[in-house]
Amino acid sequence: MIGLDDLFVVSNQLNRIPHNVSEIVKRCSFGFPTVIRSFPVLDGKPFPTLYWLTCPFMRSEISKIESNGGIKKYEEMLSKSKELLDLQMKAHLEANKRIRSIAGDGMKDLFKGGMGGIKDFRHVKCLHMHVAYHLGGIANPVGKGVLSEIKMECKDGICGKGG
After folding, report:
1. Angle between the 82-103 and 141-149 helix axes, to the nearest 10 degrees?
2. What is this structure's pTM?
3. CB 33 within 8 A of CB 6
4. Cα–Cα distances in Å, from 157 out to 34, 59, 163?
5. Which of 17, 18, 70, 89 ranks highest by number of CB atoms within 10 Å?
6. Three-state SS for 161?
C-alpha cells in the first residue's frame, strides 16, 4: 500500500482519488509519483490496467502526440515491422502473466488480454498506458518510442504545488 502523502499527490495528479493503488513504481527526480501499480481487481471485478501514468506533465506531453495522430503512427509501425510487433506481443504476454499472478486463483482466468486488457496486440489503445507499462518494467516498443519523443519531467516539480 502507499502512504497517505503519496495518495494525496496521486489524487491531485489524477484529479480523483484512485481506489485500487498498490504501490508507486516510478518517481520523478522531485520525488513525486510518476507511475503507480493498481490491484487487478476492483469491487470484485477484473481491472485490467496494471500500471498508470500519473505525472501530469508527461500525460500532457503524450496527449499532444496522441492528438497529432500518434496512435495511428504507432499502429502503422507495428504493422510494418515483424520485429516491433514481436516485441509488442512479448510485452502483452508479460503483462498478462503479471496480472494473472497478482489476481489470485479465483480471478486470474478472467484476464485474457494484454496491457490494459487489449486483445488484439496490433492495436494501440492509449499511448499513456504503453508508457506506464514501459516505465513499470514491461519493455514495449510503443512505450519506448513515445518516451523518445517527450521530455521526461517538468522543470519545477508542479506536483508539489497541488496540480
Report:
1. 110
2. 0.93
3. yes
4. 11, 14, 10
5. 70
6. helix
The Cα–Cα gap between 90 and 149 comes to: 23
Q: What's the CA angle centered on 115, arms 110 and 121, to 5 degrees?
A: 100
Average pLDDT, the chain: 92
Structural contact between residues 22 and 1, judged by C-beta atoms closer than 8 angstroms:
yes
Question: Which residue in 147, 141, 117, 5 sits closest to 51, CA to CA?
Answer: 117
Taking only the tens place, the pLDDT of each residue in 74-116 is 999 999 999 999 999 999 999 999 998 888 777 877 888 999 9
- Quick one: cell of 45? 471485478
**Grid coordinates given for 122:** 496490433
Q: Which residues pair with 42 in a beta bridge?
A: 45
SS3 call for 80: helix
